[in-house]
Amino acid sequence: MDITFRQLEIFLNVTREGHLTNVAKQMGLSQSAISMAIKDLEDKLEHLLFDRINKRLVLNEKGRVFEKEVSPLIKRLNDIEHEFRNSANKGIIRVGASTTIVDYLMPPIICNYMNNYPDVRVHLKEGNTKDIVQLVKDGAIDVGFIEGLVNDPEIIKEAIGFDELVVVTSDVLLDKEVYIDTLQDRRWVLREEGSGTRDVFLNYIKDKVDHINIFLELGHTESIKSILMSTQCLSCISKIAVKNEVADGKLIKVRVKNFECKREFLMIYHKDKYLSELFNKFVYFTKAMIASQIDKI
């Protein structure tokens, strides 16, 4: 069965008017077109829906049942169309963010946005930079926020802020100025492969050290901080992620000479993404809040 929305509209209009002439005028169609649409609908249903009485079309038994089922469906579809045409602040946005951003920047952004726009739902997915890029490419999310590097012709990227990576430890003997190559044989705890934090750090030091002793790889920054506070290992992670621990004296920011490892926070989306008004409003809101949070650090 391939009944069309147009046929159902014509059916309901004929139900109300009873005369094909009136319906034709209202819909800007010929009377024969209205008549053919009704006949085609009846053929598809294999039932007559109208009795032809005194030059009027009057619903018969089958027609009344069909009208009862169809009428609320068409009303709901018309309501949905009206909502979509007249409300840019209603919908579902699928967002992905890499670990540093999702843990330390996104929660207040999502809460504030949904408080301001209660008819919008934000679905948030977490992953490392590699994961988020793939979700964008697969169309599984609308927009991603990452701290790693991406070079892909399918991905549109925009810098939305800068982050600083710092070397941290709980070893009080390292509360002094050092060079990075003097630390290369110490035990390092880094993020897993595919992490933007890891990639940026290793790329930055590749010309400064012969090697790096990666003792442990973990998939989450909070896990790395826990390990650091119970061992004398080192790590290089976002300044944003350890600001509280450094302020409380639980971790030490190692003063590494000639070490300025910075990276961009990027917003990414697919090159073929339709940029709706809802999408653009969310992006503008998020970029402004991320910039505001970074300025306070």
3D architecture notes:
By secondary structure, the protein is α/β, with parallel strands linked by helices. The protein has 11 helices and 13 strands. It has helices at 5-17, 20-27, 31-45, 61-86, 99-104, 106-116, 129-138, 196-205, 221-230, 239-247, 277-295, and strands at 50-53, 56-59, 91-98, 120-127, 143-146, 155-169, 177-178, 188-191, 214-218, 234-238, 252-253, 255-256, 261-270. The strands form 4 sheets. Strands 3, 4, 5, 6, 10, 11 and 13 form a 7-stranded mixed beta sheet that branches. It has a two-stranded antiparallel sheet with strand order 1-2. Strands 7-12 form a two-stranded parallel sheet. Helix 1 crosses helix 4 (61-86), helix 2 (20-27) crosses helix 3 and helix 6 (106-116) packs across helix 11. The longest helix is centred in the N-terminal third of the chain and has 26 residues, at 61-86. The protein is rod-shaped, with a radius of gyration of 31 Å. The mean pLDDT is 91.
